[in-house]
Specification:
The complex is a heterodimer.
Chain A: E1 2-4, H1 9-18, E2 23-26, H2 32-37, E3 45-48, E4 58-60, E5 66-68, H3 74-78, H4 81-86, H5 88-95, H6 100-103, H7 108-114, H8 121-128, E6 131-136, E7 139-144, E8 149-151, E9 154-155, E10 162-168, E11 175-182, E12 193-202, E13 205-214, E14 221-222, H9 224-230, H10 237-249, H11 261-284
Parallel strand pairs in A: 1-3, 2-3
Antiparallel strand pairs in A: 4-5, 5-10, 6-7, 6-10, 8-9, 11-12, 12-13, 13-14
Helix pairs in contact in A: 5-8, 9-10, 10-11
Chain B: E1 4-10, E2 13-19, H1 25-32, E3 51-54, E4 57-60, E5 73-75, H2 88-96, H3 105-118, H4 124-130, H5 142-158
Parallel strand pairs in B: 1-5
Antiparallel strand pairs in B: 1-2, 3-4, 3-5
The chains are: A alpha+beta, B alpha+beta.
Bound molecules: flavin-adenine dinucleotide and FE2/S2 (inorganic) cluster (2 copies).
One FE2/S2 (inorganic) cluster binds next to loops of chain B.
Chain lengths: 285, 159
């Protein structure tokens, strides 16, 4: 295995494009090293991205949004008071990943590109409307988070492409987000269902909403029907019923040791209700 | 295969080592630097027995490559005591018998010390969540949690 330390994203892209064998980028390593250790996947070339200037920065953009460096850890996001205050759902979703030790290393981009259907930060990023900047041999483009994973362990990134930044939109007024997952334990477990919701209010009425759903399909989903169920409502019981039904209807889960199809489908609706109410409360301020 | 040359700081001392690209920081600490305090329970980030601090951040040394230690400052359980004088957490673990086989103890001491430096007055819930990534097969955790809470109290009163 060859260990590379590129000094900028173009060099990282060139290294990946020119690599002879299997390649992995290295952010926090909490998936890469586990897969090496378990002999699931051992790369021939490993490209450590943490020596690229700026990858550890959390920056407020001129438009009021945030740019998160690709090596920023979960712990660093949780400790950032302004980011946490504006996007509690997104920060808390990231914070659910693993232990204190894992939080010291794990990143949003690693969680996204590992492409586990149960990745916790991904439904929250989808709900928040997060995009990533993809850099490759042909320059850079901005891609919505929901368009990155294409199946378990698979992404839309082409050979030589990597993510160079995470872009969180401006929070704006009267908005709120939340994420919750169901796990059989209270810590250190993998989501059976995860739901992220981000909404905006005008008075008591929901004017914008996005619903991200995880662990119940081959990739995390943006569920437009669930958002439509609450837009224009004051999140009354009828709206919440419709939201739960639309969320459950979007599930295409598998049976496994942590949850049956019926259980996952039902719990998705239950969580959607709870998460919507939390996001609503946060949007009210 | 050519080895990677790494210069880093461990418990305040500058050290240099040569390692293979696949070696983890835990492998390097134990097999190259003879610092066997950090233990390998799982090798996959689940048990916390390998916990160390890297630039003040608590991490699993089994989930980091040795090559990634270049230019970092690493703190292991070997650096917790001041010479012969045990750290208050170490004394309290003995007093409370907060260990049996002791495999988990170095990782828990490193993790608990890191917590108390950030939060000198944690609630029991905070201590339990902070240490959720440190598994112990022997004690049932209760004595560990009480030892950490009591150390925190003593250290607050002493300062
Ligand atoms: C004990 C433990 C518990 C865990 N619990 C959870 C949990 O509860 N929920 C959860 O969702 N996950 C969990 N995980 C999985 C893991 O911690 C997360 O997926 C984490 O966010 C991965 O981030 P990383 O920076 O460590 O990724 P890495 O391991 O560095 O990389 C992961 C993948 O992303 C690719 N990659 C990294 N950076 C880039 C980039 N810039 N561009 C393109 N590709 C890139 C790599 O090539 C690799 O394929 C757990 C892991 C452990 C060890
Ligand atoms: S050996 Fe590192 S977490 Fe178990
Ligand atoms: S004392 Fe044996 S594992 Fe904790």
């Amino acid at each position: 295995m060859k260990y590379h330390k590129p000094q900028d994203f173009d060099e990282a892209s060139r290294l990946a494009a020119g690599a002879k064998g299997a390649t992995r980028f290295l952010a926090g390593g909490t998936d890469v090293l586990v897969q090496m250790r378990a002999d699931v996947f051992t790369p021939d070339e490993i490209i450590d991205l943490k020596h690229i200037p700026g990858v550890k920065d959390i920056t407020r953009r001129a438009d009021g949004g945030w740019t998160i460096g690709i090596a920023v850890s979960g712990a660093e996001m949780s400790e950032h008071a302004d980011l946490h205050a504006e996007w509690p759902g997104l920060v808390e979703a990231m914070d659910l990943i693993g232990s204190t030790q894992v939080q010291g290393r794990a990143t949003l981009v690693g969680n996204l590109c590992n492409a586990s259907p149960a990745a916790d930060s991904v439904p929250a990023m989808i709900a928040a409307g997060v995009t990533v900047t993809v850099t490759g041999p042909n320059g850079s483009r901005e891609v919505a988070v929901e368009d990155i994973p294409t199946g378990p362990g698979k992404t839309a990134l082409a050979r030589g492409e990597l993510i160079s930044a995470v872009n969180i939109p401006a929070r704006g007024d009267h908005g709120g987000d939340a994420y919750e997952r169901f796990i059989p334990r209270t810590e250190m477990d993998i989501a059976v269902v995860g739901v992220g919701i981000n909404l905006r209010l005008d008075g008591d009425t929901v004017t914008e909403a996005r619903v991200g759903l995880g662990a119940v399909a081959p990739t995390a989903l943006l569920v437009q029907e669930a958002a439509d169920a609450i837009i224009g409502t004051t999140l009354d019981d009828a709206a919440l019923d419709k939201l739960a039904a639309a969320t459950s209807a979007a599930c295409k889960p598998i049976n496994d040791k942590r949850g049956t199809v019926e259980f996952r489908t039902h719990v998705a609706g239950v969580l959607a209700r709870r998460v919507a109410l939390t996001a609503y409360k946060r949007a009210k301020g | 295969m050519s080895k990677i040359h790494v210069t880093t700081t461990v418990n305040g001392d500058e050290v240099e080592f040569l390692c293979d690209s696949r070696e983890t920081l835990l492998d390097v600490l134990r097999d190259r630097l003879n610092l066997t305090g950090a233990k390998e329970g799982c090798g996959t980030g689940d048990c916390g027995a390998c916990s160390v601090e890297v630039d003040g951040r608590l991490v699993c040394s089994c989930l980091m490559l040795g090559a990634e230690a270049e230019g970092k400052s690493i703190a292991t359980v070997e650096g917790i005591a001041e010479g012969e004088e045990l750290h208050p957490l170490q004394k309290k673990f003995i007093e409370y018998a907060a260990l049996q086989c002791g495999i988990c103890t170095p990782g828990i001491l490193v993790a608990a010390k890191n917590l108390l430096e950030r939060n000198p007055d944690p609630t029991e819930t905070e201590v339990r969540y902070w240490l959720a990534g440190n598994l112990c097969r022997c004690t049932g955790y209760d004595k560990i949690i009480r030892a950490v809470m009591d150390t925190a109290k003593d250290m607050r009163e002493a300062s």
